[in-house]
Specification:
There is one protein chain. This protein is of the alpha/beta class and 262 residues long. The protein folds into two domains: 28 residues; 182 residues, Ribosomal Protein S5, domain 2. Helix content is 41%, strand content 21%. It has eight helices and twelve strands. Strands 6-1-5-8-11-12 form a six-stranded mixed sheet. It has a two-stranded antiparallel sheet with strand order 2-3. α4 packs parallel to α5.
């Protein structure tokens, strides 16, 4: 009996410690951000009364359809996220819990983070312009491209900016639109050489795109697995690795040719 009593007391103490640790975990702030589908924007359209893409130095064309860049929205970097918030996001299809460092650069204030994101957007726009003009064989010293999109930061709109510039100037090369009149959405970074890179948050961006009427989603090929996992009904995935490949896929989509698939 003394042994059984001692054992019972030990178990009771351990249980109490576990309960205490769970209580602390439930209420302690965590280095996590809760992420949800963000805004989408048609790069062929306007933003705050201004065209998103302006071109001078070469003729442009009227376009139909849409090329929608996509975003995610996250809790503020100084927001308090607790275990209950993470648990809710785990079971939700329109939320995700991500390490804060994966969403925001570390060590900066909110203003510094906004400045960092804007610098990434500017760099992405420059790369998108360079890639698009190189594809078209146009000189950046003669053709000037302006890109205007307020309240959006980061590099993940690069691919869609490049496609938008090309559609504005050349379309599909045969008098038609790259979009084929569709609402095309997508995500992906772009290099000046036209390589498409991964971005993260793809399932939530797909939901934002479908919410805003898109039926086709261009996704960096390396993120196909994530993209397929929670693909919204009525959305077609098209994997891409390069700007040229994305253009070929859109042309095939319009002509009824073979379109890459995840």
């Amino acid at each position: 009996m003394p042994f059984a009593t001692a054992r019972s007391r030990t178990l009771a103490v351990c249980a109490a410690l576990v309960v205490a640790l769970l209580a602390v975990a439930a209420f302690a702030p965590l280095p996590i951000s809760i992420v949800v589908p963000g805004l989408t924007a048609d790069v062929l359209g306007s933003d705050q009364g201004q065209p998103v893409i302006t071109v001078s130095g070469t003729p442009t064309r009227d376009t139909s359809g849409q090329l929608r860049m996509t975003t995610i929205a996250a809790t503020n970097p100084d927001a308090v996220v607790r275990f209950g918030d993470v648990l809710k996001a785990w079971f939700a299809t329109d939320q995700a819990a991500m390490p804060r460092d994966a969403v925001y650069p570390t060590g900066g204030s909110v203003k510094e983070i906004e400045k960092h994101n804007q610098a990434e957007m500017t760099e992405s726009q420059d790369a998108a312009t360079t890639a698009a003009l190189a594809h078209l064989g146009l000189s950046p010293s003669k053709v000037k491209v302006g890109l205007h999109l307020a309240d959006v930061g980061g590099p993940s709109a690069g691919l869609m900016f490049s496609l938008g510039i090309i559609d504005k100037i050349n379309g599909n090369g045969h008098g038609g639109d790259l979009t084929g009149g569709r609402r095309i959405a997508g995500t992906g970074t772009i290099t000046p050489g036209g390589q498409v890179g991964a971005v993260g948050g793809v399932p939530l961006k797909e939901r934002a795109a479908r919410r805003d009427g898109a039926t086709v989603f261009l996704v960096p090929k390396g993120e196909c697995t994530d993209a397929r996992a929670e693909l919204p009904q009525g959305m077609r995935l098209v994997p891409v690795t390069t700007l040229d490949g994305a253009i070929d896929a859109l042309k095939a989509l319009e002509s009824g040719g073979k379109v890459p698939s995840c």
